[in-house]
Q: What sequence folds into this?
């Protein structure tokens, strides 16, 4: 296929964003995502866009706020400690209903943590690290092709709901190279009618705002936001299942970890164990359906994460105690070995036993 | 009958939330007059900050964004970079600009961001009830410096114009005062220049307006204007610190 190109993850995000119509990127250096702002610094000027290195992650997300509010498809990226700094801005984007795309190439934490891959920002991403009743769609790609496709779609989802969207990768995904096919270049659209472009002949003035001092009014605003979140829950939820049709036990994993688990599934299948994999592709909204379907059929779920156990809480909420849910994880930047994942599953199978 | 004095077109016809005697109203009017004079109502985008001027978006007949505390220059940057032909201005108080937003204002100035900043310095946090600001004068009492600002404990107040004047990206910098008619006329001229600087693409422009806060200073409006003249102007000298062309 002639369109197939070998790309590094961070740079693939950049090209996918450009293809989606993003022309404004604001960022601040932090490992392991630096290739993304570096890519944008030469790529965006080529297509008439603007790359600007901000003085901080705080400033970068607020530039996204300004640019998004002015009607642009705007983006910022960072890694864990920098994403913590952006939380104020993400809350404001949600409150003021501004679309924007935030990429987090997660590294180990807490604090300065490390620079190796991790999934320990799941709580922050899915619960909203910022203040207030808000939600962001969180996409969790597991390959560079999916990273490209999800980055592209992130802009469409953000525009559809006027809400920030997060793409959560990790250090591995940012740094590794894989062949990818990019979508065609989307047309750069005119600013929507709510954007602060200057009135330009409009009778009314446009306002981007998240302040509602009257509690009733703020409640009403929150109800309106909640309607959007409900729609997102219905329409944007995505997952994939592998080898679950006849599975006695199922793994649950997302992102890079799901690929390692896939290897464990293949090995265990060869060894005669009926195991499968549920892979959430959206971390929020979290997929309920596969767990409703499988909880009647499997004897248990083993959640595997590069964290001390974060997504496993959502798995437990989804399974609702119907079958046991156990956890295996590595953290701090250590990636799980598929053999250890197999051992964890074998132990679970021994303990839980089979219903059939 | 011929009208000799009217509300500027760029001001909305509402009662503001400002306290009696507060000079925010004067500053709003001056900004609106400049927007009218330069015919910017179709291109202007304002950014309201957090503090007493948080509701500025209700008072101007132009597009507005309300920014997080201190982040107005970053928000302005985002807007201006998307629509370079728009006229983008922030309206920020001293807590917003000189404390929590110190990084954002310094770096917008460093980049020579082609925006206009209207900076209201009333030496106190007004909206939250009179706490000490980075601009509170030495000895001045505030709700968090009840014995008066002690420089050994809290440092001495920031002179924003002087600080920013070292940056080559700054095209226009002026400090004016609203304590009397002459000061108000001068403030209008400076605000006009600060917008013209942006229209001419010269770079970053900021006007610092020394303002009163009768409520939190515990003074009558007249006493507070006198206090601006006697105390603030002495520490914060008036004048132009940079004019276009000089900075390079």
A:
């Amino acid at each position: 296929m002639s369109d197939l190109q070998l790309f590094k993850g961070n740079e693939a995000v950049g090209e996918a964003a450009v293809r989606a119509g993003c022309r404004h990127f604001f960022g601040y250096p932090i490992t392991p995502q630096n290739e993304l702002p570096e890519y944008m610094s030469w790529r965006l000027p080529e297509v008439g866009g603007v790359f600007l290195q901000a003085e901080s992650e705080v400033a970068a997300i607020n530039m996204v706020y300004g640019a998004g509010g002015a009607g642009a498809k705007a983006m910022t990226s960072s890694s864990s400690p920098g994403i913590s700094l952006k939380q104020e801005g993400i809350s404001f984007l949600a409150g003021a209903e501004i679309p924007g795309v935030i990429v987090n190439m997660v590294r180990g934490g807490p604090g300065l943590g490390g620079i190796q891959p991790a999934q320990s920002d799941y709580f922050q991403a899915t619960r909203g690290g910022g203040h207030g009743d808000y939600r962001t769609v969180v996409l969790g790609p597991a390959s560079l092709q999916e990273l490209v496709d999800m980055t592209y779609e992130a802009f469409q989802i953000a525009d559809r709901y006027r809400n920030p969207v997060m793409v959560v990768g990790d250090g591995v995904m940012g740094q590794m190279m894989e062949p990818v096919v990019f979508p065609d270049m989307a047309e750069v659209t005119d600013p929507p009618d709510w954007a602060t472009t200057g009135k330009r002949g409009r009778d009314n003035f446009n306002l981007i705002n998240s302040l509602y001092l009257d509690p009733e009014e703020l409640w009403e605003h929150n109800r309106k936001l909640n309607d959007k979140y409900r729609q997102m829950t219905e329409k944007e939820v995505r997952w994939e299942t592998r080898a679950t049709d006849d599975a006695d036990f199922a793994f649950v994993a997302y992102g890079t970890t799901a690929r390692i688990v896939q290897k464990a599934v293949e090995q265990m299948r060869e060894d005669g164990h009926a195991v499968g994999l549920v892979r959430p592709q959206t971390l929020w909204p979290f997929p309920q359906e596969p767990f409703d379907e499988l909880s009647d059929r499997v004897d248990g779920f083993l959640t595997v994460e590069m964290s001390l156990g974060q997504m496993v809480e959502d798995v437990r909420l989804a399974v609702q105690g119907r079958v046991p849910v156990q956890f295996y994880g590595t953290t701090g930047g250590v990636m799980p070995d598929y053999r250890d994942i197999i051992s964890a599953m074998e132990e679970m199978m021994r303990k839980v036993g089979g219903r059939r | 009958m011929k009208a000799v004095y009217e509300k500027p077109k760029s001001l909305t016809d509402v009662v503001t939330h400002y306290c009696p005697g507060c000079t925010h109203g004067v500053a709003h009017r001056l900004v609106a007059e400049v927007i009218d004079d330069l015919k910017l109502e179709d291109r202007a985008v304002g950014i309201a900050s957090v503090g007493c001027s948080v509701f500025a978006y209700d008072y101007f007949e132009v597009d507005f964004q309300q920014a997080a505390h201190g982040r107005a220059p970053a928000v302005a940057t985002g807007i201006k970079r998307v629509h370079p032909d728009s006229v983008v201005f922030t309206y920020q108080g001293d807590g917003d600009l000189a404390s929590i937003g110190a990084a954002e204002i310094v770096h917008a100035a460093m980049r020579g961001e082609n925006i206009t900043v209207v900076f209201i310095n009333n030496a106190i946090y007004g909206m939250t009830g009179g706490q000490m600001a980075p601009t509170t004068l030495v000895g001045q009492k505030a709700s968090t410096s009840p014995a008066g600002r002690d420089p050994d404990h809290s440092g001495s107040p920031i002179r924003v114009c002087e600080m920013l004047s070292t940056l080559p990206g700054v095209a226009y910098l002026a400090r004016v005062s609203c304590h009397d008619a002459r000061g108000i006329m001068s403030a209008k001229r400076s605000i006009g220049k600060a917008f013209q600087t942006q229209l001419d693409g010269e770079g970053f422009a900021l006007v610092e307006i020394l303002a009163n806060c009768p409520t939190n200073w515990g003074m009558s409006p007249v006493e507070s204007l006198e206090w601006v003249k006697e105390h603030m102007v002495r520490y914060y000298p008036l004048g132009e610190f940079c004019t276009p062309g000089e900075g390079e």
Summary: The radius of gyration of chain A is 21 Å. The mean pLDDT of chain A is 97. Residues 5-235 of chain A form a domain with the Rossmann fold fold (CATH 3.40.50.970).
